[in-house]
Amino acid sequence: MSEVRPFRALRYDTSRVDLGRVLVPPYDVIAADDRARLYARDPHSAIRLELTREVAEEATTDYAEIRDALASWREEKVLVRDPRPAFYALRTCFTAPDGTQATREGFFGLLRLEDYEQRVVRPHERTLAGPKADRLKLLRATRANLSSVFLLYEDREQRLPGLLAPGFEQQLAADAEDESGARHSLARLDDATCVDGLKGLLAERPLVIADGHHRYETALAYRDEQRARHPEAGAQAPWEFLLAYFANAHAPGSLLLPIHRLIRRGAAPSQRAWTERLPGWTQTTLAVADAESIPRLLSEHLTPLRGRCAFAADDASGKLRIFSRPRADDELPVRVIHREVIEGVFGLDEAAVRAGAIAYPKSAAQTARDVRAGEGSVALYLVPLEPDDVFRVTARGEVLPQKSTFFFPKLPTGLVFRLLEADGA
Questions:
Q1: What pLDDT, in 10s, does the model give residues 314-346?
Q2: Which of 225, 35, 45 shows the shortest CA–CA distance to 132?
Q3: Which residues, including other chains, have CB under 8 Å from residue 380's CB and lie 6 or more apart?
């Protein structure tokens, strides 16, 4: 189903650059206030290949500055293109939000672009026109994939670690700790057996976009432009492929975390209102000492309910209410909570949600602090979706509700880049 191939990566020369200092989060999660700090952190920071220094500059830039920086860094040999095509294994060791240590393994390669209608690459969320127009300007200016789309596939047999192991043992190319404390180990994979194994692994299965919907759709738009201009180029032209990172959705380190809800409009329901408006739901009430105790309580009492429709409600009164009910096979818990809780309990319809009646913090601890600071009346803590939920919904051609899941950790920019040039060039 999915066609992947090795490529000649453009990478930082780690004898010239401290890789840990130049890695940055994906462009779309970098706060406006962080741009100047990341720009100043290192003169070769990867942010300089992704974003303007100021948000206001995006509307008028043609990204010539980034194009020139890319050319200059190549000329100075700060960025060097590998001599032979390879896949690139990545092992990321990180601290999960609950404080446990975890490891995620995946690999970088080129993915043949497929229209969504082919059901080979499947989106899980809708996109906006503005970000796609901005990323298309950048792609036209640089003719390079400067950050990777992150894709998930299903492999319950865990075949990937065995394919990646030789690279980590024999061809480690880089090792660095990023600003968040995550450690990234990158290895080249060019052995014919390994290359064929990775191609075969993904040829059997479809892919779901975890992060990078705007980049994927931008690449499709650029592909179609180039096809119109170069009809003779054929199916192997560079713009027919995109830099992508692939990870197994069922691997232990592939974390699909919930995005919580903070009710910003409306008062906290009384105990009687909760009971009357949620018939059929069981309820357990726990004492809460402070915001910092919330993650532990959720881990102990909410996480074990992830096979049910479940959530926890926190109105900063010193009580944490845990609600759950049985889940039908085709139900998506986040949809149930929006229908029966956000609309049914709080009376907030879709128009109110779009108008800002809800905030979406990713951290349970931050959500707890926000509700105690008066930024909302009730915090709703959700259970994470299962990989099966994501693949089932996207297989039907549907998308998940807004802010359904947070794929953690984010994939940093700066480990590998890809030029839209033939690999023989």
A1: 999 999 999 999 998 888 999 999 999 999 999
A2: 225
A3: 260, 261, 262, 263, 311, 312, 313, 314, 337, 341, 342
